[in-house]
Write a structure and sequence with these properties.
about 0% strand, about 100 residues, 5 helices, about 85% helix
Length: about 100
Amino acid sequence: PMRNLQEPLIAPAISRVVPSKVQKSFNSKVLRNLGLLESRLHLVGMHDAVWESGVEEEREKFETEIPYVARMMIERWRKSLYIPKAGALDYGYQSAV
């Protein structure tokens, strides 16, 4: 699938070609345009992708570029927003009926 190409090929290529400042600006624009709920979902997904990648440089960038308060809220957003909306199957949780 496309994700198999993104992680080893596309993401590293972009990070080498596009300056960090431009990437950060793009990320800010995406979050601003997504709105509050969608941006929180995006941050949870981005956090998981970065940690699953195992690339220490990406973890450091996440820690540097994502504000502290948002990073502290990720687990809460995962439980209250992400799992019910996007990840119930991924996390093995069953939604409460």
